[in-house]
Specification:
Elements (H helix, E strand, L loop, with lengths): L14 E2 L4 H4 L7 E2 L3 E6 L4 H16 L5 E5 L6 H6 L7 E5 L3 H14 L4 E6 L4 H11 L5 E6 L17 E8 L13 E9 L5 E6 L11 H18 L1
Parallel strand pairs: 3-7, 3-8, 4-5, 4-6, 6-7
Antiparallel strand pairs: 1-2, 8-9, 9-10
Helix pairs in contact: 4-5
């Protein structure tokens, strides 16, 4: 999971890949830098998108090493939901902050500790200097800093303000795969990377995190490259 030193002698930053080539290849670092700040928000203020963003965070934290510090402003974190995406509630240290300033201070302390796998905070607004402090504190370690930025009001954009975050994501719900029997298939998300340092933005449809914290490509997307490869081989024959 962790990259050490490359062949040129330069120390490479520790990275947590998603394990999906189509996704990791679009990220400048080949995954999420562990010594960095990343921001996630729901695509809309709708509760379903908010839940999708939360479980996306939970899946990332599940694949990190060690304990996870999760700082909240309201008591709505659902432990069984986190367990479904691989984050054992026994790994989570919960903290409740009075305001965003206290939340920021707790996150900074968690990142300085260097003994945590992930530090997560839930905010509505955070100014550029605050995100810069989080990024600076995270650098040099391997504790990933994750911010869940919630919609402050209808029509607002949680990712509209400038930020020092290395990546900024919007997570939206998408229709699940149809089943041959009555029921609901595996949830799907529309991942939208609004900004990344050193790379371009993109969108990708994925199936939601499973019990190991990993996303998957929908079956049609997996089959499409294989079908293209067979067609190319047939044409060359």
């Amino acid at each position: 999971m962790l990259s050490a030193i490359d062949g040129t002698g330069f120390r490479r930053r520790p990275v947590l890949p998603f394990g999906l080539e189509r996704l990791d290849s679009k990220l400048a670092d080949g995954g999420l830098r562990l010594d960095a700040l990343h921001e996630i928000s729901g695509a809309t203020p709708d509760l379903t998108d908010d839940c999708a963003a939360t479980t996306f965070l939970g899946g990332i934290a599940a694949r990190c090493w060690g304990p996870v510090l999760w700082v909240v402003r309201r008591r709505d974190l659902f432990a069984p939901g986190l367990a479904q995406v691989g984050l054992d509630p026994k790994r989570v240290i919960y903290a409740e902050a009075r305001d965003d300033d206290e939340l920021l201070a707790i996150m900074e302390e968690g990142l300085r500790h260097r003994g945590l796998g992930a530090v997560i905070g839930e905010v509505k607004r955070l100014a550029m200097p605050a995100t810069r402090r989080l990024q600076l504190v995270a650098e040099g370690g391997r504790t990933i800093a994750l911010l869940l930025k919630r919609h402050a009001r209808e029509g607002s954009d949680p990712l509209g303000a400038p930020s020092a975050a290395v990546t900024r994501w919007r997570i939206g719900c998408a229709p699940s795969a149809p089943l041959p029997v009555e029921g609901v298939g595996r949830p799907r998300w529309e991942l939208s990377l609004a900004r990344q340092r050193g790379g371009e933005s993109f969108q990708l449809l994925v199936e939601a995190c499973d019990a190991t914290g990993r996303c998957a490509l929908p079956a049609p997307l997996v089959a499409r490259p294989r079908a293209a490869g067979r067609a190319a081989r047939a044409a060359a024959a």
